[in-house]
Amino acid sequence: VWIWSKAKFINRKFLMEELYQRFLDGEDSQVAQEDDPFWDPVEVVHLGSAHIWLQSLAYCMKFEEQVEFLNCDGLEEAVLHIHINPCSPTGQARGEEDVVTDPVDLLGKRMDFQIRLVQCLGTKWLKEDAERGVQMGYRIYDLPSTLYTKPVWKIVNPQIDETVQFTTLNASQEFLNYLQTNALIVDLWGLQEGCAELSCSQLNLMVTGEGHILVDTKKTPPLMDTGQIPELYLKLLKLEQETELLRNINRVLREENVLLKESVERTSSSQQ
C-alpha cells in the first residue's frame, strides 16, 4: 500500500509524462528503479489520529477512555484504549484528595503524570491483511521528538500496554493553559512487510533522576517574578470576565436597537 501526498503525486505525474513522451519519440524508456515514477520503497502508512483532551490533567484528575482513530476521510480506523493519570514522582496514582478546583493551584509546582496506551481495538488495517503490523506515536507540549510504541504484528486487537511518565519540575502558566485547551494527538501507523519500523531518538530528551521524561522545560522570563504570576493570572482572568460582560451588554443593546428601529418604522408606516 502506498499513499502519496499531493506534491509527490504531481512530481510523479510529470515524470510519467516525460517517460511516456520518450516512448512516443522512440527513445529508450528504460530507467533505473530509483528513477522509476511507478516504483516506491515500502513505507509505513499513516492510518489515522486520535485526539485526547488533556483538561483533566490541569485539575489533577485521572482519565480513562476509548477514543476513535479517524482516517483522512473522517472514518473510524480503530479504537484506542488510553489512560492518563496524575501520579507521584515514584509513579503512584494520585487520589481524589489531590484534585484541585483551579489549575492555578498547580502553578510553579512539580507535576508528574503517566500516559498509558493500553490497546488498539478493531484495526481495519490488520483485518485486511493479517501479516501487517501497527505502531503508535505521540508528542506532548514541548517534547522535541515523537515517542513511538513498539511494533506489533499480525494481531487485530494488539495489546500495546506501554506507559511513559512525564514530569514538569515547575509548572508554568503556559503549560497549564496548554492542558486546558489542547488535545494529545496519537497517530496510528500501519506497517507492512519490507518497511522500516518507526523509532525515536532518546538523545535529545531531558529526563529526571528517576528517568522520567521532562516537559515544560522553558525558563520563565527573567523579568517575571514567579511570585507575581498568580496575581497576574487572577488579574487577567478578571479582565477576561469583564470583557465578556461588556460583550454581552453590547449584544443586548444591539438587539434592543434593532427592536426600537422596527418599532419606529411600524409607527411611521401607520401614521402614513
From TrEMBL:
Q: Where is the Kinesin-like KIF1-type domain?
A: 9-44
Organism of this sequence: Cervus elaphus hippelaphus (European red deer)
Q: Which Pfam families match?
A: KIF1B
Protein name, entry field: Kinesin-like KIF1-type domain-containing protein
Question: Record's InterPro entries?
Answer: Kinesin-like_KIF1-typ (IPR022140)
Task: State the superkingdom.
Answer: Eukaryota
